[in-house]
């Protein structure tokens, strides 16, 4: 709370202004309005799991929470949500809509509202950052096994044969009935492998695309 006027530096006085007790300046007319804070949070999910972070700042240090933070004065709420999620988790997300508006509580000088946005990951590497110590996607108890099917090894090949040294690995499935893992970096990895493959073919004397 202000003690001196931010306009003219005179000592502030207490009085009733606009129906409530407020600090004001008797010399220049400044009135201190304690505006509420606006915070944003991300309900980031891949459909079955929700992303949580372990707090490293007051209030509730060490507790699990949604990635969240305060909106800056020059931001829109949606931009603030994307920024806060990236700062705390390393993920770039796509917002899917406003999920809820809740009162912001915790300590008296930081009262306000919390805007919670639904979001899905687009790219990035999940890692704790900013004011958190852990960023995790809890695995639901109902999913204890992941069936991958059966793989049969029929033969072993020599990967040093010139023709096979031009073969590259493509992480994106190209077989009907097999879906991608859902990793947001899969397409990026695929592009990197394809670019690497072109350079390898050129190096080994085969510049075909």
Describe the structure.
- This protein is of the alpha+beta class and 209 residues long.
- The chain has three domains: 34 residues; 100 residues, Nucleoside Triphosphate Pyrophosphohydrolase; 40 residues, no CATH class.
- Helix content is 15%, strand content 28%.
- A four-stranded mixed sheet has the order 6-3-8-7, covered by helices on one side. It has a three-stranded antiparallel sheet with strand order 5-4-9, with no helix packed on it. Strands 1-2 form a two-stranded antiparallel sheet.
- The model has no long low-confidence stretch (mean pLDDT 78).
Provide a quick synopsis of the model.
The chain is of the alpha+beta class and 209 residues long. 15% of the residues lie in helices and 28% in strands.
């Amino acid at each position: 709370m202000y003690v001196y006027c931010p306009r003219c530096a005179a000592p502030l006085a207490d009085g009733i202004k606009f129906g409530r007790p407020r600090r004001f300046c008797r010399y220049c007319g400044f009135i201190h309005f304690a505006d509420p804070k606006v915070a944003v949070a991300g309900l980031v999910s891949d459909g079955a799991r929700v992303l949580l972070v372990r707090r490293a700042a007051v209030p509730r240090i060490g507790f699990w929470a949604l990635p969240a933070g305060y909106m800056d004065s020059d931001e829109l709420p949606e931009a603030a949500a994307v920024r806060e999620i990236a700062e705390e988790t390393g993920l770039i997300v796509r917002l899917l809509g406003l999920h809820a508006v809740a009162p912001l509580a915790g300590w008296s000088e930081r009262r306000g509202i919390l805007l919670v946005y639904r979001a899905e990951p687009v790219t990035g590497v999940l890692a704790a950052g900013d004011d958190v110590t852990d960023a995790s996607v809890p695995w639901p108890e109902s999913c204890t096994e992941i069936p991958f099917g059966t793989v049969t090894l029929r033969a072993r090949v020599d990967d040093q044969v010139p023709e096979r040294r031009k073969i590259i690995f493509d992480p994106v499935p190209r077989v009907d009935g097999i879906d991608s893992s859902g990793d947001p970096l899969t397409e990026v990895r695929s592009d990197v492998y394809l670019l690497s493959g072109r350079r390898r073919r050129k190096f080994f004397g085969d510049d075909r695309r």
